Structure to design on (673 residues):
């Protein structure tokens, strides 16, 4: 394999990643990595600020592209974790306020969602347009609720110094409301007995291990010598050779 | 079927709960604000509903029989009781079917009105139809194997996975040719067919012209000949009779790669011979000798042809289990008058034993020996030579026992091969 082959393979691989989801995710992660590097300027963690910023952005980008390319859960974990860490580093030293932290959390969540969406196209899948649209609607709803909840908590307790109590309380109320609204009213249909089949019921498929490839119905099965009617076994060695 | 929580559940839970915990420790709002989108996502996914089961309904193929290289379509429906925002369907195919379009779909199931409700009323179900274009690449009785169905909630927090076996099959036929020649009749049946009998009687092919003899029916006198010769002449003819043919198929071993394999040749030749002889009113049987036998007694008719072809397409090399499998049982109801036509590369001990046994019972045994595919470079020349010598010894050993062995090279058409068969059989019968 020559250099041109390897280059071509990499070009193909990167070409597959030229989707809006991957590019937007790359923008998010690179932006927060750069922000974190800039925020850490002068802390003395690194020798050169430009080099550290470039290194942080490259590492975050590499993780993001690897996660989008392979779809590995561990890489997605790491990539989103790095983004969250960059958000914390970028905002913590500036005393940015809870609302900006909520926005940072939203972008980190969006980054993870984009990795997931980009991976749906693997193996030349046909993706219904409604699927990513539904995921984006869900993301927007979650983001709006989180930002609104944070803003509400901040507004209600503004200046009291006890605003931190409001968010856990909001979360607790949300959990309770969810349980009341969804779990409590659910009435489960009676589960039919698996031991008895009733007319009209779907016959369950055979277990995975027990099924074989479909074969012809009207052809005879392989018979052992003992099963052949009147069959006479022939010796395994030929006489007279 | 399995249902579980995805990595996103743990990711959202860890960041969200971590934010709450840090907030409680540091008494600042920022950590929980950072984790709040993750927590809200978890809660919304719970509201959205987890683990919605999906059924695969009515999988069907657009064709029941195709020829290698033909295209067909698999259609199937996914059905759910409730809408599912994220459904993944992936069809798993055997080696002899390949997809010519996408075989993986990501979609959602919306509520549709199904007028064919169970109790006659209108019931609402969620249904989506999918089509997977396929190409049959290799002969055999085959079909799509499994449908992998995954349902997720909108946020990808929960996952439900099921693997449904697809009970649809298609017979992929190897391309065959039209055959005109027949394996010559060995012992005739009293039923009219296409084989020329050695006897004389009422038929269409001229046997001899002779003078009218006492006892001949008057209507046997040929008027034209009699007028030319000036004396009553009779034109005798060979009657057309039918015969019994048993095709012996060697499925003990399959040599070659891709489409150039001995078993494919065997199946192709046996299919063509069965079709031709059944068309000639011969009774045709099938004996598949592998690690065990399959036996179809000789019969007539189109239905029997379908049975034989299906049995041939289902032929495969079975794994050998015990040493007892080395025995072949020849069915007792194999007709004495049947001509045995075996298609085999003559490598397996099983087929050689079976053929000698058939010969010892008094059958005329004709062996069509497909040419072995050329070995690749990894096989040493010495090994190739030893193999060829062993194969030649087997062939000669069978010839000594009175079988007729005709090699069949890949360039030869079946029609050409059959002409050689007819020549060889005629010669050997004259010697006998």
């Amino acid at each position: 394999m020559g250099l041109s082959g390897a280059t071509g393979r990499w070009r193909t691989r990167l070409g597959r990643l030229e989707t809006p989801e991957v590019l937007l995710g790359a923008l998010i992660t690179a932006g927060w990595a750069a922000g974190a590097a800039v925020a850490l300027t002068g802390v003395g963690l690194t020798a050169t600020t430009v080099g550290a910023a470039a290194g942080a952005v490259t590492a975050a980008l590499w993780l993001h592209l690897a996660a989008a390319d392979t779809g590995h859960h561990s890489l997605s974990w790491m990539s989103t974790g790095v983004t969250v860490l960059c958000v914390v580093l970028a905002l913590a030293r500036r005393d940015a306020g809870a609302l900006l932290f909520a926005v940072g959390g939203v972008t980190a969540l969006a980054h993870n969602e984009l990795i997931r969406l980009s991976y749906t196209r693997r193996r030349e899948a046909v993706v219904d347009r409604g699927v990513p649209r539904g995921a984006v609607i869900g993301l927007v709803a979650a983001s709006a609720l989180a930002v609104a909840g944070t803003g509400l908590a901040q507004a209600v307790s503004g200046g009291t110094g006890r605003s931190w109590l409001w968010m856990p309380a909001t979360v607790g109320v949300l959990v309770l409301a969810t349980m009341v609204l969804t779990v409590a009213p659910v009435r489960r249909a009676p589960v039919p007995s698996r031991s008895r089949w009733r007319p009209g019921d779907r016959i369950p498929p055979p277990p995975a291990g027990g099924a074989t490839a479909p074969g012809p119905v009207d052809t005879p099965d392989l018979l052992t010598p003992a099963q052949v009617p009147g069959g006479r076994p022939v010796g395994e060695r030929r006489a007279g050779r | 079927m399995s249902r579980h929580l995805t990595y996103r559940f743990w990711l959202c839970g860890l960041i969200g709960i971590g934010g709450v915990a840090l907030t409680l420790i540091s008494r600042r709002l920022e950590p929980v604000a950072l984790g709040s989108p993750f927590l809200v996502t978890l809660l919304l996914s719970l509201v959205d509903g987890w683990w919605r089961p999906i059924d695969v309904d009515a999988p069907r193929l657009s064709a029941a029989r195709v020829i290698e290289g033909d295209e067909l379509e698999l259609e199937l429906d996914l059905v759910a009781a409730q809408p599912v925002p994220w459904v993944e369907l992936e069809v798993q195919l055997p080696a002899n079917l390949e997809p010519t379009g996408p075989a993986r779909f990501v979609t959602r199931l919306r509520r549709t009105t199904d007028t064919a409700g169970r109790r006659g009323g209108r019931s609402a179900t969620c249904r989506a139809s999918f089509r997977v274009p396929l190409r049959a690449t290799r002969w055999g009785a085959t079909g799509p194997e499994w449908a992998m169905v995954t349902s997720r909630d909108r946020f990808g927090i929960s996952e439900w996975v099921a693997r449904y076996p697809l009970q649809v099959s298609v017979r992929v036929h190897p391309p065959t040719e039209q055959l005109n020649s027949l394996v010559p009749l060995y012992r005739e049946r009293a039923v009219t067919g296409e084989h020329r009998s050695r006897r004389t009687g009422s038929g269409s092919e001229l046997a001899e012209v002779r003078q009218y003899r006492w006892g001949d029916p008057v209507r046997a006198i040929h008027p034209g000949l009699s007028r030319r010769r000036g004396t009553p002449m009779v034109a005798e003819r060979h009657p057309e009779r039918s015969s019994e043919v048993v095709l012996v198929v060697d499925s003990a071993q399959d040599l070659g790669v891709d489409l150039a394999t001995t078993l494919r040749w065997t199946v192709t030749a046996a299919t063509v011979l069965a079709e031709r002889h059944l068309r000639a009113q011969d009774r045709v049987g099938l004996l598949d000798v592998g690690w065990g036998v399959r036996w179809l007694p000789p019969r007539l008719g189109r239905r029997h042809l379908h049975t034989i072809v299906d049995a041939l397409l289902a032929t495969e090399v079975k794994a050998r289990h015990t040493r007892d499998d080395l025995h072949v049982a020849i069915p007792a109801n194999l007709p004495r008058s049947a001509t045995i036509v075996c298609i085999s590369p003559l490598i397996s001990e099983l087929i050689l034993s079976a053929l000698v046994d058939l010969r010892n019972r008094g059958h005329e045994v004709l062996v069509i020996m497909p040419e072995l595919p050329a070995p690749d470079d990894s096989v040493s020349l010495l090994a190739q030579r030893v193999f060829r010598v062993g194969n030649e010894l087997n062939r000669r050993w069978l010839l000594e026992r009175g079988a007729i062995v005709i090699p069949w090279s890949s360039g030869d058409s079946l029609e050409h091969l059959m002409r050689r068969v007819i020549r060889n059989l005629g010669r050997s019968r004259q010697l006998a």
Observations:
- The two ends of chain B are 67 Å apart (CA to CA).
- Chain B touches chain A through 93 residues (CB under 8 Å).
- DSSP finds eight helices and 26 strands in chain B.
